[in-house]
Amino acid sequence: MFDIKGIRTFAMSARDLEKSVDFYTKTLGGRIVRKVEPNEEQLKAGQVREVDVRLGNFEVHLFDASKGPRAADPHHTLNIPWQEQDQALKALREIGANIEKIRPHRDSENYSINVFDPDGNRWELSFAKEN
Predict the structure, then answer these.
(1) Measured by CB atoms within 10 angstroms of the end CB, which terminus of the chain is less buried, N or C?
(2) Are 19 and 36 in contact (CB under 8 A)?
């Protein structure tokens, strides 16, 4: 169906973001590649602080869960070569995939489609031109 190129991220909630970042950087030797610090308006809308730590050929995407875990975590993201969104959705619908949502990526025309496996595990399919 899709030509999966690898795992992009393991996304998870972190009760103590700083301790989690220390674990992934100091214990496992990863490096921080991105931080998101939402402004007041974004925080009110539900966005949380985020840190991406690179470990080998994938990233651990940590979400601040100091006020409680996010409903969307954990989830894992797969790299899939670009195709038009309509084409990807049609292919998923034809096989009866359990599609949760479609999410545009920040500052690009790339997008993700979230699906659930038969046991309710969430997978993010990342369609990006650089995959």
Answers:
(1) N
(2) no
